[in-house]
Structure formats: structure tokens, C-alpha cells
Amino acid sequence: MKGPSTRGWLVLAGALWLGGIGAGFVVLARYSATPGIAQAKVARWPEATRLTRQAGRPVLVMLAHPKCPCTRASVTELAELMAHAGGRADAFVLFLRPEGLEDGWEQGELWRAAARIPGVTVLRDPGGVEAKHFGATTSGHVVLYGADGLLRFSGGITVARGHEGESPGRMALERVLREGGEGGDTPVYGCALEDPPASASR
């Protein structure tokens, strides 16, 4: 039979273990709810972009890192948005390919998921040049430009990193595409485009 001191050590070890789990959940929750660095808004369709904007058509652009796990939710929400948009806008998803990496590195799971969305054109963004044109610093950043080439929305379409479901960003975009007007801006939850995830070099 174990003595009182042994039971005490077991209780202490259990308490420390539970405390560690609790602290881990707090850290994860805080990380999930922390948005990326605030982006600089580009008020007018950038002339330097290689994307083609059709006259009289709104254009939506998502800038993404192909290895960012948080961006899976953003792509899922984009699919919902496009399903509700009823063909009211052209859409692009641009996937970063850092300099020095081989052609095709960016064409992974997220690329394929985005390419399956009706109405979306998926392209590579070598060196993040296009992300800079649109002022994006965080994966999952979405911008919408109206038919007049003026910015109508800039921000994210999830409420946390990797969280699927309705969000202020997606609802604002749906409203703008349906009724016109301004959609404002929302925080972007994802990996930093200039500081890629640890898996980026694989």
C-alpha cells in the first residue's frame, strides 16, 4: 500500500499535468483569435497588377500562402461566398511562391481546393509581387473592387484562424455584391505572407 507521501506526489503530478493542458488551451485560443498585421488598403485597382479586370465587373482577389493551415477555412468560406454571389463578380486566388522554390511548389491541397470553386481563377504569385500590389501581408486577405475600380472591401472572411462559419467579413462581401455600397474592412486571420510557416520549404 502506498504511503501518504506517494499519494501526495501523485496528486501534485496530476495537478501539474492538468495545469499544463489548461495553459496549452489558453495559448492556442489566444493564437487562434490573434489577427495578422493590419494591412495597408489600396483604394484603387492597382495599375501594376498583371490581373485583368473586365470593364463593368466587380473583382474579388484573395492572397494566400499555399502552406498556411489557417487558410483552409478561408478557402472554404470563399466557396460559400461564391455560391451565394450568383456570378456577380470575377474572382482570383493568388498563391504565393517564395523566390528560389521550384515551379509547382505552390500547387498543393489549398490550390486544388480553390481551383474547384466555380467562378474562381487560381494563379501563382512568384515572390509575393501581387500581394504587395494589393497591400496584403496575411494569408487569406480578400479585397473586392467595384465595377468602377474602387475598393469596396478589404479584410478576412473568417472569425479566427482556421474557423469555418459565418463571419462579418463574408457577410459584408455578400451584402456588397448583392446591394452595392461599401463593405468596410475586417481582421485577417492567417499566416504572415512574408514569414511563411515552418512547412513552407518542404
Structure, explained:
By secondary structure, the chain is of the alpha/beta class. It folds into 2 domains: 1-32; 59-201, Glutaredoxin, CATH 3.40.30. It contains 5 helices and 6 strands, in the order H-E-H-E-H-E-H-E-E-H-E. Strands 3-2-1-4-5-6 form a 6-stranded mixed beta sheet. It is globular. Residues 21-32 and 197-202 have low confidence and may be disordered. InterPro entries: Thioredoxin-like_sf (IPR036249). This is RedB protein.
What are the salient characteristics of this protein?
2 domains, 202 residues, 6-stranded mixed β-sheet, alpha/beta
Question: How are the secondary structure elements laid out?
Answer:
Elements lengths: L3 H29 L26 E6 L6 H15 L4 E8 L11 H7 L4 E7 L2 H5 L7 E5 L5 E5 L12 H12 L4 E2 L17
Parallel strand pairs: 1-2, 2-3, 5-6
Antiparallel strand pairs: 1-4, 4-5
Helix pairs in contact: 2-5
Organism: Corallococcus soli
Protein name: RedB protein
